[in-house]
Design brief:
5-stranded antiparallel sheet, YezG-like_sf, 30% helix, alpha+beta
Length: 104
């Protein structure tokens, strides 16, 4: 499921999310879908009191996510079309790439 630039591109996504994490936020969670040349993302900040606040994605976030998808396609790796990326304020993160069959 990983292309040759996977780690480099994920690192860029993590850095973008850390920049979008406001003071007082403990983690930021990005979820969405990707396909050839297309990406949709939803970002939320989780604060220490448990509150969840939606935030806007940095302009280059979806473009970088498309690069991750393209990297997977270029590698002829297992396809994915949905993702979850959770980044803690200390920079640790988890990323989940999965394939969800389109409803038909």
């Amino acid at each position: 499921m990983h292309g040759p630039r996977h780690d480099e591109i994920v690192k860029s996504l993590v850095e973008l999310l850390l920049q979008a994490l406001p003071d007082g936020g403990d983690r930021i969670v990005a979820t969405g879908e990707a396909d050839l040349g297309h990406s949709t993302s939803s970002l939320s900040v989780v604060s220490s009191d448990g509150s969840v606040t939606p935030v806007a994605a940095p302009p280059e976030f979806d473009l970088t996510l498309i690069k991750l998808y393209d990297d997977t396609v270029d590698a002829d790796a297992e396809p994915w079309n949905t993702y979850t990326l959770m980044v803690e304020k200390d920079g640790t993160f988890t990323v989940s790439l999965s394939y969800v069959s389109p409803q038909g």
